[in-house]
Amino acid sequence: xxAIVLLSGGLDSTVCMSVAQQAGYETVPISxxxxxxxxxxxxxxxxxxxFYRVKKHVLIETNMRAIGGSALxxxxxxxxxxxxxxxxxxxxxxxRNLIFLSYALxxxxxxxxxxxxxxxNAMDYSGYPDCxxxxxxKFQQVADYATKAGIEEKKISLETPLQYLSKAQIVAxxxxxxxxxxxxxxxxxxxxxxxxxxxxxxxxxxxxREAGFxxxxxxxx
Length: 221
Hints:
Layout: E1 2-6, H1 11-22, E2 26-33, H2 40-51, E3 58-61, H3 96-111, E4 115-117, H4 133-146, H5 148-151, E5 157-159, H6 167-177, H7 199-211
Parallel strand pairs: 1-2, 1-4, 2-3, 4-5
Helix pairs in contact: 1-6, 6-7
Binding site for ATP: 7-17
Pathway: Purine metabolism; 7-cyano-7-deazaguanine biosynthesis
Cofactor: Zn(2+)
C-alpha cells in the first residue's frame, strides 16, 4: 500500500506523516518550493523524510511569489499573532492547497497510491479557507472525476487525520507516534530560531503547553 503525504516540514504535516506510517503505508512525501518566505521549512521536510527513510521524496518548484498577495510570498510584513482575529489573515496564500493537492493527485496516479494525506486542521483555525472540511470534500469530488483512476473506480481518497483535532491533541498524537517533532519548524518568519510571536508560533506553543510537553525547537521569544 502506498500513500502520498504533503510534507511541509511543519508540525501538522509531520504528525500527518507519522499517522500514514503507523497505518502501514509506504509513504511518498511531496514538498513545495513556492517562493515562500519561510523556505527553511524545506530543510525540515528533507530531515523528516530522511528520518522515515523514504524511498522517494518529491520536491516541486512553483513560483507563487509571482502571484503574491500573501505575507509569505510578497513584500508584506508578517504580523504578530492575534488569537482574536476573525478575518482571513494576511499569511493566507491564495489557492495554495488547491495547487498542492493537484500536484499530489497527479503524483498519486503515477505512483499508484490509494491515498493522499494532508494535515489540514479546522479546530485551531487560522482562518484559511482551504483548510476547511468543505474544501476537502469538494476537492475529493474533483479528484474522482478528474483522474483516470477515478473513472476506473480506483479512486484516490484524501485523508485528513488532523481535521478535527486541537493543536494540543496533534502534539500528543505526534509524541505517541514518535514523530520527529524536533526536526520541524512552524515559524512564518523562517529564521534559524522561531520568532515565537507570529500566529503559527503562538498556536504551536499553545499546543505543546496544553499537551503538557516542552517544545523541542528553539525560539527567540
